[in-house]
């Protein structure tokens, strides 16, 4: 079971730090990782098309392979698992599934389903792939941050890693051309305190108008 504690969102945000030293003997059950992901995918996304997919690597031998692809970063191998977040460039393929599901759940009527499907089908297949990549990248960031906060609330630590060979990752894990590897998130129990960081003062980056 996870060492979950009762913390406010504000506390979780302030206590979450990127951890790079993990207890290699600590294993998180797949059911717990699924629970974290089920919370993460409640994140918002453009037109609710949820342009994300996940590959969870918890096999020790496969993690060793992944470490070579990810610039030999230690957390890849010592964490309980690595969650690869992929962006879906063809999120429009989800349109009917998403909106029909909303209808079946009683969240919208047939008229609204048809309107939303028509609008989405008129937009997403016709915009450039570059724009769709940007949308998928943004939404993958939202789901990734939510994932890390939920993990921390459950007592686990994480670190997001963008430094990996995405071409080699695609080849090793047979990733379809539809998907873009965005980030690797190591998750586990810290074996050493995180390296603390500061932030640029708000007065230097925000203004009221």
UniProtKB/TrEMBL annotation:
Top-level taxon of the source organism: Bacteria
Keyword Oxidoreductase: yes
Gene3D superfamilies found in the cross-reference section: NADH Oxidase
Pfam families named in the record: Nitroreductase
Keyword Secreted annotated: no
Entry coiled-coil feature ranges: none
Signal peptide extent: none
InterPro entries: Nitroreductase (IPR029479), Nitroreductase-like (IPR000415)
Entry keyword set: Oxidoreductase
Transmembrane regions listed in the UniProt entry: none
Domain Nitroreductase: from-to ranges: 13-189
GO molecular function: oxidoreductase activity
PANTHER family noted in UniProt: NAD(P)H NITROREDUCTASE YDGI-RELATED, NAD(P)H NITROREDUCTASE YODC-RELATED
Family affiliation: Belongs to the nitroreductase family.
Name this polypeptide is given: NAD(P)H nitroreductase
Organism: Cytobacillus solani
């Amino acid at each position: 079971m996870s060492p979950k504690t009762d913390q406010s969102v504000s506390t979780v945000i302030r206590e979450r730090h990127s951890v790079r030293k993990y207890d290699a003997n600590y294993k998180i059950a797949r059911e717990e990782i699924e629970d974290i992901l089920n919370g993460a995918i409640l994140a918002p996304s453009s037109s609710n098309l949820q342009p994300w997919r996940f590959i969870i690597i918890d096999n020790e031998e496969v993690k060793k392979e992944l470490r070579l692809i990810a610039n030999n970063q230690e957390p890849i191998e010592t964490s309980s698992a690595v969650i690869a977040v992929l962006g879906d460039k063809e999120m429009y393929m989800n349109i009917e599934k998403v909106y029909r599901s909303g209808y079946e759940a009683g969240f919208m009527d047939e008229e609204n389903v048809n309107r939303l499907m028509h609008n989405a089908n008129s937009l997403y297949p016709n915009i450039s792939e570059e724009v769709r990549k940007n949308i998928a990248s943004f939404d993958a960031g939202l789901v990734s941050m939510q994932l890390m906060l939920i993990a921390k609330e459950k007592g686990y630590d994480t670190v997001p890693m963008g430094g990996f060979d995405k071409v080699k990752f695609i080849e090793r894990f047979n990733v379809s051309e539809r998907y873009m590897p965005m980030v690797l998130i190591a998750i586990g129990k810290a074996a050493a305190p995180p390296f603390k960081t500061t932030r640029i003062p708000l007065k230097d980056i925000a203004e009221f108008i």
